[in-house]
Amino acid sequence: MNVNDDLGQGGAAASLPRLLLVDDEPRLLSSLYELLRDRDYRLVTAASGSEALVHLDAMRFDLVLLDLRLPDIGGHEIMDVINGRGYDCDVIVMSGEVGIDAAIGALKRGAYDYLRKPYSREELLKTVENALQKRRLAGDNQRIAQRLETSEKMYRYLVDSSPDIIYTLDHEGRFTFVNDRAYQLLGFTREELIGRHYSFVVHDEDLDRARYVFNERRVDERASRNVELRLKCNTAHGAANGERTFTNTLMTISLNAIGMHVPDGSAKKREFFGTYGVARDITDRKRAEEMISYQAYHDILTDLPNRMLFKDRLGLAVIQAKRKLTELAVMFIDLDRFKLVNDTLGHVKGDELLQQAAARLKACLRRGDTLARQGGDEFTIVLPELRDRNDAKAVAEKFLDALQKPFDLDGHVVHISASIGIAVYPGDGETIDELLRHADIAMYQVKALGKNGHSFYHASMLDMSHQKIALEQALRRALENGELEMYYQPQVDVITGRIVGAEGLMRWNHPERGLLSAGEFLPFAEENGLMLPLSDWMLGALCRDLLVWNAAGGDTLRLSLNLSPQYLDRGDFFEKMRGALSRYGISPAQIEVEITENICIRNPQYAIDQLNKLCQLGVSVAIDDFGTGYSSLAYLHRFPIHTIKIDQSFVKEIHDEGGHYPVILAIISIARGLGLHLVAEGVETDAQARYLQANGCTTMQGYLYYRPVSLATFVDVLKARDPLPEQDTLPLALRA
Question: Tens of pLDDT along 448-494?
């Protein structure tokens, strides 16, 4: 194949005509190529019919110069292939045959021209140029036709299929044209509207505004645009019921009065002829805007005012109270135990609970009161025009009574309560932010005192709130300054009297308040996002302490550690555990992770995956405080659990070793049936120990044996450990 230099280049060369030269005589093909190469053509040559067909399949050609007599496939057959396959190219046949049949055959097959060899240089060049010129003109005509067709389709779409009403009015405001969209939207046929005044379809209250836009005479940017009107509907014809709102985009038509009789006899004077307009139905948009506006100020789940609307109404209530010299109350309500229900039964049931709780709270209010959802399980209320504080107290008590009744969530009966903080204007604050902040502080005071109640704000609570902030800052410093320490409470096998393990418990050596137990600061840490760094510290501290354990001969003991749900939920917990054990050379068999039941139930499959990883590593798993949460035996047997710990709240109920305590017996039976190890927590009396031992629980933890002790004391115990002496009463081995 010979291709001239510009073939394959971009730019202007790409738009040049492409010619295929086909001749089996090398000398003639070369001569033909040389004759055309200096022209603005892109040339490709073929020395046989089969080669020509390959090129035709591979690329598009504008013109084929074809010799009829080819050694493999004749020129007529090639033209048949071109026609059969629909190749868009013209053909000039070149042949040395003198017979008329060859020329007729070529022309019948659509050849542009037939040149008999030998042909003159001028004849060939002129024929080629004429053929290409014909193609250019045909292409131009086709493009023009396509543009006209597209323009016509666009016109038909805009007018006949427009989503808007397109209309024209005469100079008196009567309809002279209206498209079919008017019938689809308004129910009026074209015949019913043509000749009628525009006021026929305009809502009576909008006629004054309509007068200006339907008589619009301006043609420039001052012409009326986007004017909203309400149009009437003919419901008898099946149009959408009710009035619809339209926005009109108008322009005025001015015509030259050529050939028309005008009063002053001037045929070129521009006179007002009428109005052209497009009316777009914006009814759905207006409804959507109203819905968006409503949703911007309301909580979607409970349909209550949201935080933004509440602040707006509270601001108005404060202005009114200031003007009338009256009091108002702001309440901050937090639902107690909602998180437990949400985690246990799932977010769908949690949403149902919020909806039911919101309905009960709303039923307790007066017409002028406002109940809003702040977010999560928090609600706020403004009670304007109080006679005295007793009014707010009465409403708060009504709230508590309403919430005490059980909630039925599709067969799941749950109980919740509420912590309510109350701030009164103007004594507890004169601004929106002050009132909300003080009501919030009062609510947290109720939570700190045991929840399920209400409290009015007073100044001393602000000091306590500041103390909480100081506590958070101090706890962060404690991590940096090494003020945290692990204590250990041994677990005893009462049959042999030996220590078989210990539970790790965090302590804080506070520089001012002394030694603080975990219960005094961990709940606060969970609320303030400190559990993850605290858990990271604990993991490292336990591993370091285990090295000291093992050196003192405690390598056969198992350490149990409480795992925060937040820590388990973090995706890198397993890697942190594995990395710590490897770094310190600790055997995974020495570690037992304690989790609560609610971790398992709120996200079962995720918990199973995490715990299975721990078990594969060699770490065992215990369920702490068993029986105090929402236990599910269907889930329990699926989890890789090794130990159940009987919660101390059940152990405390044991007062008589000969008594009957069915919950304890049930837990022992479950552990035995599932083949799980059993540990009783909080054992403090001989009667408790004997009852548990008699019924099959032989591993115990509690003050009867050991209090939580520091690492140094625990190491001393390990070095001096011996079986407990056999006596009728189990002695106290150590009280630290």
Answer: 777 889 999 887 776 665 666 667 778 888 888 889 999 999 999 99
pLDDT tops 70 at residue 136: yes
- Looking at the fold, whether 595 and 669 belong to one and the same domain comes out as yes
How far apart (Å, rounded) are the C-alpha atoms in residues 67 and 92? Answer: 9
Record the tokens describing residue 294, joined without a space: 């409503």
Task: Give the separation between CA 81 and CA 78, rounded to whole angstroms.
Answer: 5
* H helix or E strand, kind and range, residue 173: none
At residue 250, what is the residue type? L
Whether the per-residue pLDDT at 729 is higher than 50: the answer is no
Q: Is 340 within 8 Å of 331 (Cβ atoms)?
A: no
Residue 521's nearest CA partner among 460, 561, 594, 468 is 468
Q: Report the CATH number at residue 15.
A: 3.40.50.2300
Q: How many CB atoms lie within 10 A of CB 532?
A: 15
Lowest-confidence region among 539-553, 582-596, 635-649: 635-649
What residue spans of 502-553 are helical by DSSP H?
518-527, 531-551
Residues 356 and 266 in one domain: no
- Categorize the per-residue pLDDT at 212 as very low, low, confident or very high, splitting at 50, 70 and 90: low
Number of domains forming the structure of the chain? 4
In this structure, what CATH number is given to the domain that contains residue 350?
A: 3.30.70.270
Shared domain for 268 and 358, answered yes or no, is no
* Model pTM score: 0.45
Q: What are phi and psi of 564, to 5 degrees?
A: -65, 140
Contact criterion met (CB below 8 Å) for 565 and 598: yes
Long-range contacts (CB closer than 8 Å, 24 or more residues apart) made by 183-187: 183/237, 183/239, 184/239, 185/233, 185/239, 185/240, 185/244, 185/281, 186/231, 186/232, 186/233, 186/234, 186/239, 186/244, 187/233, 187/234, 187/235, 187/236, 187/237, 187/238, 187/239
Say whether both 211 and 119 belong to one domain.
no
Q: Which range of residues forms the domain containing residue 393? A: 298-457
Of 440, 457, 474, the position where a domain reaches its end is 457
Query: Whole-angstrom Cα distance, residue 403 to residue 582?
Result: 51
Is residue 270 in a domain? yes
Residue 32 maps to a domain: yes
Digit-coded pLDDT (tens) for 332-378: 999 988 888 887 788 899 999 999 999 999 999 988 899 999 888 99
**What order of strands is seen across the sheet that includes strand 63-67?**
42-46, 18-22, 63-67, 90-95, 113-116
Q: Residue 85 has which token pair?
A: 């396959």
- The whole-angstrom separation of Cα 639 and Cα 601 is 10
On whether the CB atoms of residues 43 and 2 are closer than 8 A, the answer is: yes
Q: Find the angle CA(221)-CA(223)-CA(229) to the nearest 5 degrees.
A: 135
Return the bridge partners of 175, or none.
Answer: 169
The neighbouring-strand residues paired with 686 are: none
- 150 domain-assigned: no
Assess if residue 194 is contained within a domain.
Answer: yes
In the predicted structure, residue 238 carries a pLDDT above the cut 50: no
Residues 119 and 183 in one domain: no
Pair of tokens at residue 706: 């050991």
My answer on whether 547 and 402 are in the same domain is no
pLDDT(65) > 90: yes
Residue 601 tokens read as: 């139930």
User: In Å, how far from its chain's centre is CA 562?
Assistant: 33
Report the mean per-residue pLDDT for the chain. Answer: 82
